[in-house]
Amino acid sequence: MNFWDYLGSRHQQLLADAYQHASAVFQCMVVATLLGVLIGVVTYRSDWAGNLATTATATLLTIPSLAMIGLLIPVVGLGVPPTVIALVLYGLLPIVRNAIVGLRGVDPALVDAATGIGMSRLARLARVELPLAWPPILTGIRVSTQMLMGIAAIAAYASGPGLGNEIFRGIASLGSRNALNQVLSGTLGIIILALLFDAAYVVVGRLTIPRGIRV
Amino acid sequence: MSETSAAAMPTPAPDEGDGARAATGATIRLENLTKRYPGSSEPAVDSVNMEINAGELVVFVGPSGCGKSTTLKMINRLIEPSGGRIRIGGEDVTHMDPVKLRRKIGYAIQSSGLFPHMTVAQNIGLVPKMVGWSKARTAERVEEMLDLVGLDPGEFHGRYPRQLSGGQQQRVGVARALAADPPVLLMDEPFGAVDPITRDHLQDELIRLQHELHKTIVFVTHDFDEAIKLGDRIAVLRERSHIAQFDTPEAILTNPADDFVSGFVGAGAALKRLNLTRVRDVEITDYPTVTVDDPLQEIFNRVRASGTNEILLLDRRGRPYKWLRRGDLMRARGSLARAGTLVNDTVTRDATLRDALEAVLTDNAGRVVVTGRRGEYTGVVDMETLMNSVHELLEADRLEAMENQHELEEARGEQTRQAQEGVGGAAGGAGGGGEERA
Ligand SMILES: Nc1ncnc2c1ncn2[C@@H]1O[C@H](COP(=O)(O)OP(=O)(O)OP(=O)(O)O)[C@@H](O)[C@H]1O
Ligand SMILES: [Mg+2]
């Protein structure tokens, strides 16, 4: 069976896997973004806290994904939970780092002006600092998403959802008729998803970056 | 130090009821105001005492790092004082909620501080919105403010800061500071980053604004000429914000308190002094005049009869046209068109004495015609009257400055006496709320 025939006969399964893959990445990205920006907001004002947050999230990233999931299974069991936790943890670094860099990069004169005209700390954060730091944060989110697309495939190892199942099935039956087709379709699916997400981020950027600071 | 800190400032509260008169200034009193930055042994601002009157524009001027900005920012508590007290309009604001305090104090800084992600209208509307003005009222106010600072509301309303020139940004910055009609306005080198010509314009605009609004303005600069031009009074600060002299520009120019101040005033104090007086303040002499419509014979007679050597020929609308000397008409064979020399330079009554002096110096006969609003003749200033006036001015300044200095010394003596008796003891506000960024 050639690749196209394979796609034709399996497209339903593939679409379902792709949907689950995208959905898992998307949901984990939402959580990672909220958490990452929060960590950034809490730590950016202090030198050591900011550096600690960046270093900690960077350290997480050095753990091989397979090992991370392997370590999580005994704690939270199989299936969705280890996938979600691992993806969120991996997704943090680019977001935390860019949030801290972005927030620290806001012109001190503007922070001074915001405080000086009577904004509370929260108002200043919400109306001045975060909007100005948003472009780098969005870049972080984009990088994070690309990364998670690949890492999510490993989730199949813990019986998680997504295109990883296709790849793992292929690897498990290497030498069989459809092994290559399976690995190939899983991988291509991930690449296509990644491209689609990236395109979506361009649109999101257009819609959310204020016109006055768009480059 | 438990201070029964009042929650609100004694503003005339113009917030409700449109058309209420704009809030005019409030007095500002700094009492032993001190700032010690963590980690430095010397205080950056050391026990400053100052009283700024309502509606007054006071300029802080001094060398870089002398503590001008620190002193200014303690007034709206962007920097928490480590000691002393601030009173605005009689109310102690040293311990009131800084966010509330700042909404009653306009704040404009160098590089305008406009938020690049908001339009001009959004920037200006920020404070009115924060203090709870309705949308409609805020929108109306934004247009009004743009108008006030000389920008066409229709054109600039929706622009982003990066679409404005530096001078325009600065105007919007001032509009934003004034939007919620605060009685007090703090400006930290607001015109420091624009080119000299624009700066000159902006200064003129500020003078005009202040003429209309009568806010209490504290203005920081290190440009002494700017200080002279803008200040009702100037505080010359030396290191640690010690006041070297706090007086009118005239007094500082003619009678600097010490070498530090004269060093700061720089060369040409007398010339700078000329900038502060207008032609209308000096004696303008009347000259014999004739108009082009007068019969020739009459003109002849007037020239001959006048004690002076020449008379001024006015055109049909009473504007200076030509200087006529005896004999000019003869030489021109009675033709007014050819006789005499054209008047090529005039000054208005609002021109500074410096402009007048310049005109007199370039005129070959050493005098210049003063004109009224529509260019009509009102008189003549010549070298002699100018010099007499300047001498009188300088003498008056000197007397006044000496008097002020005497008072200042007496007040200082009183203060040290009080301090020694422990009456005016500096109150160590526990300070250091998490507002300032290290
Ligand atoms: N956040 C800070 N921490 C420590 N020291 C500071 C801080 N801010 C200012 N200083 C010090 O306090 C002194 C006064 O600074 P300030 O900014 O008030 O000077 P300035 O008169 O406004 O100078 P310039 O004309 O250069 O703006 C300086 O010696 C400066 O080094
Ligand atoms: Mg300064």
From TrEMBL, chain A:
Gene3D superfamilies: MetI-like. It is found in: Cell membrane; Membrane. SUPFAM superfamilies: MetI-like (SSF161098). The keyword Glycosyltransferase does not apply. Its main location: membrane. It comes from the Bacteria. Residues 18-201 form the ABC transmembrane type-1 domain. Pfam families: BPD_transp_1 (PF00528). The keyword Nucleus does not apply. The chain crosses the membrane at residues 24-44, 51-73, 79-96, 147-163, 183-204. It is a multi-pass membrane protein. GO terms for biological process: glycine betaine transport; transmembrane transport. GO terms for cellular component: plasma membrane. Keywords: Membrane, Transmembrane, Transmembrane helix, Transport. PANTHER family: GLYCINE BETAINE/L-PROLINE TRANSPORT SYSTEM PERMEASE PROTEIN PROW, OSMOPROTECTANT IMPORT PERMEASE PROTEIN OSMW. Belongs to the binding-protein-dependent transport system permease family. This is ABC transporter permease. It comes from Streptomyces apricus.
